Amino acid sequence: MTATASASRSRTAVISIACALTVAVTSAQQPPAAADAAARQAAQAAQNARPDTPGTGRFPAMKEEIAALPRHVVYRPQNLVAMGAQKLGVVAWGNGGCSNDAASSRFHLLELASHGYLVLASGRILSGPGAPPRAPRAGRPGAAAAPAGPPAQGQLPAPRTLVSDLTDAVDWALAENQRAGSPYYGRIDPAQIAFSGWSCGGVQALQVAKDPRVKTLVIHNSGIPNNGPTTMTGTSIGKEVLQTLRTPVIYILGGSTDIAYANGMDDFARISHVPVAVADLPVGHGGTFQEPNGGAAAAVAVNWLNWHLRGDTAAARMFVGDACGLCGDSRWTLQRKQFPPAAK
Question: What is the pTM of this model?
């Protein structure tokens, strides 16, 4: 301010400078990393407060932990009897970050379950309704625990779930289908098996794709890293695993800002022996998992499952033909290869 400025402007400037200094001092007292962590914790707290939703399918869904399956959370229709002759398909799910929070994608998984699927997610309920109180981190009195779900961009924590959790989930489901007295006795169709996962969980799903029981894969915001083999899942895996694919697979990606976008697109380019699609929605690595009922990506996943596990021709129309549902949706970009002649 110049020496000739009026007294009124001087007072205004002094107030403005004082406010700016207050902001600067406050920012200096809270390092950017701490501020980011606080913001993530606040966002997670808001997410945890949201109630579970039953999904939009014909069978309102629920989630539960059961003693007989201690490494998984079960998502299923609430009333199995009300399903009548409709058999359950099975979806084994790997979490983002290979974390053990099996509720981190709960809205998406409840949506799948509401369409008649038994979804078995690795881990336990660590966020949202049904989660236990979260203890502060050791060594930092009063500090809140880190939020559940995928890690911050660029971080690769040690996996808290195993690749084998996906195949173990299918083992359990098929055994329950044959166990007299089980609520799932005779209610599961062994021909309707899928592996799916988000980010690191998607890589887990790719690692077990050769399982002869699986009929399709749904890979969200994921792909085998382009910069060489990775141990993010706890075991080394490289692009060679793509040669083990034996079923149709869809990659659901989040556009160029999705940190897994380049990996997923490279996978798509390399796969030349099974039907493969990539559906791209430019929303970033977080996808639409936290939107009501799992958002647009959940709708795509449900239709892909219904087409490949149940032969649902109405669901297939989202993906097949020049006038397919995703083809005419300006939000999405769809690419396809190796589709059957009648399904292009």
Answer: 0.84
